[in-house]
Predict the 3D structure of the following.
Amino acid sequence: MKRPKAFGFDVFGTVVDWRTSIARESAGFLAAIGRGDLDAERFADVWRQRYQPAMANVRDGRREFVILDVLHREMLVDLLRHHGVDADALDPVLVTDWAHAWHRLDPWPDSAAGLARLRALAPVVTLSNGNVSLMIELSRRAGLEWDAILGAEHARGFKPAREVYLATAAASGVEAGEFCLVAAHHSDLAAAREAGLMTAYIDRPMEYGGAPAPDRDQRQDWDYEADSLTALAAQLEART
């Protein structure tokens, strides 16, 4: 297997721990609105479950492209309504700040160091559904260094649409077959492989709090597999 000439990274779940972070943030906000009775981890899980259906409306052409910040806020409002909370009766600044909890996700312990080592081998870019401002704030807070912020907003579409992968590879100046998606999600990797990209799977067993991943049935033999970004870097460094 040839070494990639550039790496694109899924971010939510692969590089940052969204579940722990969103549960922590939501616990504070739920207490602030008098709904501390709700389970914050369950709240985080259900918020995340609304992710793909919300983006599907854009991918299927039923809606013009909007950035993920917009969808995150809409998903939050819908989830609050499900629990009998009228978001319109809340301070809009509070609701927006809560929706922007996705800007404040903690990295996995190996992420910053692993990303730096991989960046020494080839350019590293985001290949995320997150919008540019979200990725900038998240990355600055988490100490993550990229060569470019690419993905959904650049491509004006959401993964797993084929054009998002191809547009990110093209913007990185390499052919699809020279570009490697690094992700913790088999469904993401499967779509990237279908688009002609190389694939690197990072095992993140605690992404869903130890529960089985929802896309485990899509597992394949990926080009590279590791249990951390530092371990992936070590594999590739050994090939120099």
